[in-house]
Amino acid sequence: MRRVMVIDARRCVGCEACVVACKTENHVPDGAYRDWVVQETRGEYPSLELTIQSQRCNHCSNAPCVANCPTGASHYRGDGTVQVDRDKCTGCRACIASCPYGARYVAPEGHVEKCTLCVHRLDRGKPTACEEVCPTSAIATGDRGDRGSVVALRLRRGTASVVTPEAGTEPNVSYVR
Amino acid sequence: MQPHTEIDSTRSAAIALAERFWGWEIPVYLFLGGLVAGLMLAVSAAVILIGRDRITRAMKLGLLGAPVLLSIGMGALFLDLTYKLHVFRFYTTLELSAPMSLGSWVLLLVYPVQIALVIAMPVEELVPWLDRVPAIGRAREIAAAHVTKLAWAGVGLGVALGIYTGVLLSATVARPLWSSGALGFLFLASGSSTGVAALMFAEEDHEALGWLGRADLGLIAFELAVLLLWIVGLMTQGPLYREAAALLLSGPWAPAFLGMVVFGGLIVPAALEGLALRGRALHSRLVPALVIAGGLLLRFVIVYAGQEVGFVAG
To answer: Is A102's CB within 8 Å of B100's CB?
Structure first.
């Protein structure tokens, strides 16, 4: 299984329900975010283009946070997602220095946290918290190898892009248009 | 022309308020690690090149001070950890892709070699203390019999430790300023020159001061060349890398970098040392003091400025 998230950027309205759901589900502390919404406006009036993206840890296949973690706390799970084992984390913040997306933060307890892709929910057959509350079904999580899944369908039909491809991290969160 | 772009994000306010993820502890650790690497390299090289009999008191003091300075550096690293109780986790695994893990293990190898070098060539005041314990006396004999091998180990570990302090930063993909293989060699050159400068600070033997001065001049020239290579490398990459380099060349860090690190910490001491070696000026402790201060400031500038430019826009 190769878990990926595919977000249909045409559907996203920037309501930030995903942000609130994540904060509630994962008890994210004040001032920290596991997901966030970026609105980018390009061009000159009246010729403007607005892009809205719900962003998070990209669960990269070539994750510098995993490569640079000195204790193995940041690791790949069997499903391809990137997780942090808080029992191994020393709070050295090498992973924070290594993440091009600024997806990590230090929890009040001292260890580093980030989006887990809600694997605690996915393992029970439930969708991620952000996906569950998304009012336009912009967010979809699933197995990339399953040709019948929503994510595979979206990747086949749409034009997919990732955040900061120049970082060379091979993100597993894609945006289709 | 780039189209006008405006970015707004849920976390814009949090990003604006965010503090540096690495504070003073990391540059202090990198500086002391480099200094210790330089001390080991310089004294070990002296043992190999001129023989243990010509090792001066200042060099023996340098050997003695190295593990102390390294411990202070590791203390700074420990203070930096936000989950201090888990510090032992560094030594429950070896992560080959993580410079910080490799460095942790290199540090464990550095200590015994340093201690063996100290007991093989102790300062006079230490000898009666060492001889009080028979086991140390036997260890001294063994270390003294293998001092050249220990010196080669000191060279190898000094190079590894010096390069590691730079690779720790350059291995992070996310910070354009640090994203250069030159950083390992820059920190090795800087660590070596500060190590030699520390020896010059304590050196009273005029002949040895001459060797050390010439070595430091060479190391400063090498450091300037690597600095130039690093900056040119950044300037010829993408716009984000140029933005990172601009922080040092024309941005808020320019006075500290160009004025105090490059000019005050490298060019001025090199010129003064050059004059002293030609007999036109006296050897002054100002030269090593400037080199050491410049080396410390170099770490602060690179670690702090590096955190100011990243890929994240929102």
So the answer is: no
- Tell me the ipTM for this assembly: 0.90
Which CATH architecture does the domain made up of B18-306 adopt?
Up-down Bundle (1.20)
Binned at pLDDT 50, 70 and 90, residue B149 comes out as very high
Chain B neighbors of A100, CB-CB under 8 A: 173-174, 310-312
Interhelix angle B147-170/B182-202, nearest 10 degrees: 130
> What are the structural domain ranges in chain B?
18-306
Give the gap in angstroms from C-alpha B27 to the nearest C-alpha of chain A. Answer: 14
Look up the pTM and report it. Answer: 0.93
Taking the Cβ of residue B19 and every Cβ of chain A, the question of whether any pair is shorter than 8 Å is answered with: no
Counting Cα atoms < 13 Å in the Cβ hemisphere of B295 gives 37
- Answer yes or no: is pLDDT of B228 > 90: yes
Distance from CA of A137 to the nearest CA of B (A): 20
pLDDT digits (tens, 9 = 90+) for B82-124: 999 999 999 999 999 999 999 999 999 999 999 999 999 999 9
State yes or no: pLDDT of A108 exceeds 60: yes
CATH level 3 topology of A3-176: Alpha-Beta Plaits (3.30.70)
Q: Where are the beta strands (DSSP E) in chain A?
A: 3-8, 35-44, 47-56, 74-76, 82-84, 105-106, 112-113, 139-143, 160-161, 173-176
The residue whose two tokens read 């700074």 is B76
